[in-house]
Specification:
Strand order of the largest sheet: 9-10-8-11-12-7-13
Structural class: alpha/beta
Helix content: 25-40%
Distance between the termini: 30 Å
């Protein structure tokens, strides 16, 4: 599978690369602005500074570098980038990992409470609430609370601004108190009795450890989808003199999480905050479609709209295929065989769900003689000449492909919502916009007119060409 390996820094990136300060720093930018590659290219300059310092101090300990990615698919991609942007002739230890895997390993692989256990306990206790709230909302709200405040900071939730959670359903002070007392505390008591831990408690345990890892250089990629307790646990294990780069864009936050810099103990100002404005990935047409989906959403801290006015150039207008799923798949196969050079271009079929949802597509690609790779949850970036990847929307975070197909956008895959400020609508708009933004050259969406999700109706008029199949 093709992977971006070496990048010639742009003038905008060079200004950032020339800065090499100690401490935390924030690198912002919309989809396609080169945030991740900029952070990884900077590794060389940071490593150079630490080499010089060690030589002056006659310190021959290896430089410890950690790159945290949000999911395993992105981990494999970033490992490829890191391997091509770190020197081979210096003593250096590089760890590229997800936070979950790292935390479990250093804690000795404790037992993790399953999602099903949490969902069961929430369902059982939801009936005790004075105001009925949807189970889907309660599950994501519990995840939000525990990952932002942890099991020891639940009282802070009672008065906080619920960043990124929308205004519907409304959760006032009394409802928050009931969620904490009637749902979260019984859940924590239950898993304690079973000898397991919630993922948020895993991060809390890492915070409580002695700082024995002492990372010199850390990159946290897609940091907007890390939780407050995860950020705190990473900061617990940096050296006295360190550099931590947070790469993020809250416009692409797709999980029920959120934090403020103040909450995690980090001060952000002009001296340690950088903004990338140019879009190096998308065409103007692709960026405009993604931008139309998230314009008007609440602008959280570190929020960046896709930048169509400074995109890399013009190209084909994204297409919306209207027809049966089988017709959408056949159109995609015909297009690949006719228009795509698979020896030098990559293709992604991105879907809301994985597993069996790809069965029909896999059989049709194979019948057409097109090789494919399942990329969701892979530990390593695929080797070889196959340049068609099948992955979920969530697994596509941070990746890029020349051609992206988002087929089968049906009503049962995107949750309904009750109002424009419903958290489900906000999350769905961000998720689809993020997925569209993975494309470099072309985007094809597919929906059946009488079974498409309402989200298709939110596509901005003039940003796509409708094709009836």
């Amino acid at each position: 599978m093709l992977c971006l390996k070496k990048v010639k820094p742009s003038p905008e990136q060079l200004k950032i690369l020339s800065r090499s300060n100690s401490g935390p720093e924030v690198l912002r930018g919309a989809a396609g602005s080169g945030k991740t590659t900029t952070a990884i290219i900077r590794l060389r300059s940071h490593i150079g500074r630490f080499i010089g310092k060690r030589q002056r101090e006659n310190n021959y300990n290896p430089i410890k570098v950690a790159v945290f990615t949000f999911n395993r698919t992105l981990k494999g991609y970033v490992e490829q980038l890191v391997s091509h942007n770190t020197p081979e002739d210096v003593p250096i230890e590089v760890t590229v990992t997800t936070h979950g895997k790292w935390a479990k390993e250093i804690l000795g692989s404790p037992q993790i409470a399953s999602d099903k256990v949490r969902e069961r306990i929430i369902a059982e206790n939801s009936r005790k609430l004075s105001k009925a709230l949807p189970l889907e909302f309660l599950n994501s709200e519990v995840e939000y609370i525990l990952n932002r405040f942890g099991s020891l900071g639940l009282d802070e939730y009672l008065t906080c601004h619920r960043d990124g959670r929308g205004g519907a359903p409304r959760v006032d002070r009394s409802a928050r108190e009931e969620i904490v007392e009637l749902i979260i505390r019984p859940y924590l008591d239950s898993i304690l009795e079973s000898g397991s831990l919630d993922w948020s408690q895993i991060s809390e345990r890492v915070q409580e450890m002695d700082n024995s890892l002492e990372f010199d250089i850390v990159i946290v990629d897609e940091a907007q989808d890390f939780s407050a307790v995860q950020i705190k646990s990473i900061m617990r294990h940096v050296a006295h003199d360190y550099v931590v780069t947070f790469v993020l864009d809250t416009a692409q936050r797709i999980y029920a999480r959120g934090f403020t810099w103040k909450e995690v103990g980090i001060s952000v100002g002009p001296g340690n905050s950088f903004q990338l404005s140019r879009n190096y990935r998308n065409t103007k047409e692709i960026a405009e479609m993604a931008k139309g989906l998230i314009e008007g959403l609440p602008a959280e801290e570190d929020f960046s709209l896709p930048t169509s006015d400074v995109a890399q150039g013009s190209g084909m207008v994204p297409r919306l295929l209207n027809g049966k799923f089988s017709s959408q798949v056949q159109f995609a196969i015909d297009y690949i065989q006719r228009e795509v050079d698979l020896s030098s271009e990559s293709v992604a079929f991105v879907h809301r769900k994985g597993g069996r949802w790809f069965d029909y597509l896999k059989s049709k690609l194979s019948q057409a003689g097109l090789d494919w790779e399942i990329m969701t949850r892979r530990e390593c970036w695929p080797e070889g000449d196959c340049n068609i990847g099948l992955l979920t929307m969530h697994s596509s975070k941070g990746l890029e492909f020349d051609h992206v197909f988002l087929l089968g956008i049906s009503s049962d895959l995107f949750n309904d919502w009750d109002s424009d400020d419903d958290h489900r609508l906000i999350e769905n708009r961000k998720l689809l916009a993020m997925s569209i933004g993975r494309a470099v050259k072309t985007v094809h969406l597919g929906a059946k007119r009488d079974d498409s999700s309402e989200i298709v109706g939110l596509l901005k008029e003039g940003t796509f060409e409708l094709i009836d199949l």
